[in-house]
């Protein structure tokens, strides 16, 4: 989904951080869902699928199934796997065969996702056991699709984006607030898979933004992928990855550290890296991996 990049930084060993032993990362590799410890050890494949989202308590992973139904079509459903038992619950009662991008409430009781049961994409919510499906906000032909939904810290609204704006949508489906992406980051926008994540304290958004600036990379074409922190109380933004560090699919580990996807020099496959928000302690955790999510602190 994201383009091939080179990440120009040294992969020298950095000071290790102390992690809580019971926290885990879910990630995607070769169209499959994997989990690992928070320090990147103990990798284990748990299911076939994409877009994994680990539950806040670390006991379950929501993800997308992909089932080929013909030479040119696929059915995509939201599913949840119990990590301890391996039991998978596919939400086939959700209307349509095209659902994407699950995200958990902080209390782990509900999941928001995008779905297309008709000609346009809706934002929808379902209980974590697959019951009580309902549309949070209907898409229309006159509006741009809303992508990348993620719950606010209080579970009373959802953040999402339409490639030019970031929105906060209430449980009534109405827009509470919106921000132009090019005001957050000059000459910036987001792709349809541009990710949003909410910090554990609920005060900041981590945004994967594409920038129309000259890439400081040989033979590079296309926008520069960068991670930005947007402080909700102050409405101020700060670039976290510098110009020679490309990154996307960022998520918070805690209020001071993040995970993101990039590529090491000379390598063809993406890897998952961790970094402090001050740009220090940069370290690769997982090779040949993408789309990370982290259980709650």
Task: Provide key terms for this protein.
single chain, 297 residues, mainly beta, 5-stranded antiparallel beta sheet, 4-stranded antiparallel beta sheet, 1 helix, 25 strands, 1% helix, globular, disordered N terminus
Distance between the termini: 29 Å
Q: What are the segments in which pLDDT stays under 50 over at least 5 consecutive residues?
A: 1-21
- Whole-angstrom Rg: 18 Å
Report the biggest beta sheet as strand number plus sense, adding barrel if it closes: 5 strands, antiparallel
Overall residue-averaged pLDDT value: 90
Helical stretch count? 1
Total strand segments? 25
**Helix and strand pattern:** EEEEEEEEEEEEEEEHEEEEEEEEEE
The gross shape turns out to be globular
Q: Per DSSP, what share of the residues sits in E-state strands of 2 or more residues? A: over 45%
Helix content estimate: under 10%
Structural class by helix and strand composition? mainly beta
Q: Please, could you describe this protein's structure?
A:
The protein has 297 residues and is mainly beta. Helix content is 1%, strand content 47%. The chain is globular. Mean pLDDT is 90; it is low at 1-21. The chain has 1 helix and 25 strands. A hairpin with a 5-residue loop joins strand 6 (74-82) and strand 7 (88-90).
Can you give me a brief rundown of this structure?
The chain is mainly beta. The protein is built from 1 helix and 25 strands.
Topology:
Blueprint (H helix, E strand, L loop, with lengths): L23 E6 L2 E6 L6 E5 L1 E5 L5 E9 L5 E9 L5 E3 L8 E6 L5 E6 L6 E6 L6 E4 L9 E5 L5 E5 L3 E6 L4 E6 H4 L3 E2 L6 E3 L5 E8 L12 E8 L4 E4 L8 E7 L2 E6 L8 E6 L6 E4 L3 E5 L3
Antiparallel strand pairs: 1-2, 1-25, 2-3, 4-5, 5-6, 6-7, 8-9, 9-10, 10-11, 12-13, 13-14, 14-15, 16-18, 17-18, 18-19, 19-20, 21-22, 22-23, 23-24
């Amino acid at each position: 989904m994201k383009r091939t990049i080179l990440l120009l930084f040294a992969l020298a060993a950095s000071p290790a951080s102390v992690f809580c032993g019971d926290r885990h990362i879910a990630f995607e590799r070769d169209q499959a869902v994997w989990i690992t410890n928070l320090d990147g050890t103990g990798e284990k494949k748990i299911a076939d699928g994409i877009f994994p989202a680990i539950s806040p308590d670390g006991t379950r992973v929501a993800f997308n199934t992909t089932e080929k139904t013909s030479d040119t079509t696929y059915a995509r459903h939201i599913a949840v796997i119990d990590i301890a038992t391996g039991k998978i619950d596919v939400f086939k009662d959700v209307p349509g065969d095209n659902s994407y991008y699950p995200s958990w409430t902080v209390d782990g009781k509900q999941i928001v996702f995008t779905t297309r049961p008709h000609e346009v994409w809706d934002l929808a919510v379902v209980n974590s056991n697959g019951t009580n499906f309902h549309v949070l906000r209907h898409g229309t032909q006159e509006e741009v699709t809303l992508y990348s939904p993620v719950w606010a810290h209080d579970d009373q609204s959802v953040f999402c984006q339409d490639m030019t704006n970031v929105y906060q949508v209430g449980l009534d489906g109405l827009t509470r607030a919106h921000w132009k992406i090019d005001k957050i980051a000059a000459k910036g926008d987001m792709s349809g898979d541009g990710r949003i994540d909410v910090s554990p304290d609920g005060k900041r958004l981590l945004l994967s933004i594409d920038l129309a600036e000259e890439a400081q990379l040989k033979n590079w074409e296309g926008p520069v992928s960068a991670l930005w922190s947007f402080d909700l109380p102050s409405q101020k933004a700060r670039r976290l990855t510098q110009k020679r560090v490309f990154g996307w699919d960022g998520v918070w580990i805690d209020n001071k550290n993040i995970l993101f996807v990039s590529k090491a020099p000379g390598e063809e496959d993406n890897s998952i890296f961790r970094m402090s928000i001050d740009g220090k302690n940069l370290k690769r955790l997982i090779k040949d991996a993408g789309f990370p999510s982290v259980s709650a602190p």
